[in-house]
Amino acid sequence: MPLILGLETSCDETSAAIVADGRTILSNIISSQIDVHQKFGGVVPEIASRKHIENVIPVVDEALKTAGVNITDIDAIGVTYGPGLVGALLVGVAAAKSLAFATDKKLIGVNHLEGHIFANFLAHQHLEPPFVALVVSGGHTSLVYQKSYNEFELLGQTRDDAAGEAFDKIARVMQLPYPGGPFIDRLATEGNEDAISFPRAKTGDNYEFSFSGLKSAVLNYLNSAKQKSETVNNADVAASFQKAVVDVLVDKTIKAARKCAVNKVVLAGGVAANSKLRAELTAACAKVDRELYYPSLTLCSDNAAMIAARAFYKHQVGDWTDLRLNALPSLKLGEKKYFAEKR
Asked: CA within 20 to 30 Å of 122's CA: 155, 200, 302, 310, which one?
């Protein structure tokens, strides 16, 4: 029963986990920084890095203790090395390399986006590729065709703002707390989603997304109302904005599933926790006879269990790296690259 220690420090969660056989979570410790960054209305990279330095070893110790194993029992160490905030990534990579060197364990670099997809293997024990995955988070919105455990084809991604980024920006303008996505989701349940006609970006017959125009339309609506001293129903704004985002995500995902001729669709990333997206994608998949999979709310957010799960399948095929592993903040999904380019 191979045991993988996973480390995740790509943004503002410091997490360590122990996963067995790529499917069973023995521990998944997450130290969140939400309270630290909330007063700034978003993540401050320098502060995030400092908090990771403080927290990374304690969460590793807690993960081992909770799982009831020693570091010597671990078969390999998986760590997020991109994409993400470079300073934050460097903390996790340095910790993983130090542990791998000190214990003579295999080191595995994990793509953060691939990790999000693999959270579904932890939530659904019998799930197997091939499938189409919609990865939606604060920094990324991508459609991926996963052919096997280690083969990915990026079908399309956002041309500008990610869906989660748009949620957070609109929430900030509406003076909702950070992170804004859950508050928009909650407020939207009280509003009329057809009250305001916000635009859907026309990106053509492809699998790409664009949310900057929608974001601008919402901002213009709010500013115009303010200038005219008109009363704004925030619940209607939240519901109408959310519907505009979800409509596009669902439409493109179903088209991708048909193109790739797969009967399984996977939802992943922080925005996978959105109740409207889950409900609409569930209904759309049912209409076209596709099965939809998504993880628990805990596994939607950044966590080390998903990193350990991804690392397990790389470990199986000997896809390890050495101590030259570096943080690559702009790493692309499916990209086999572990070291920074020499200048």
From this structure: 155
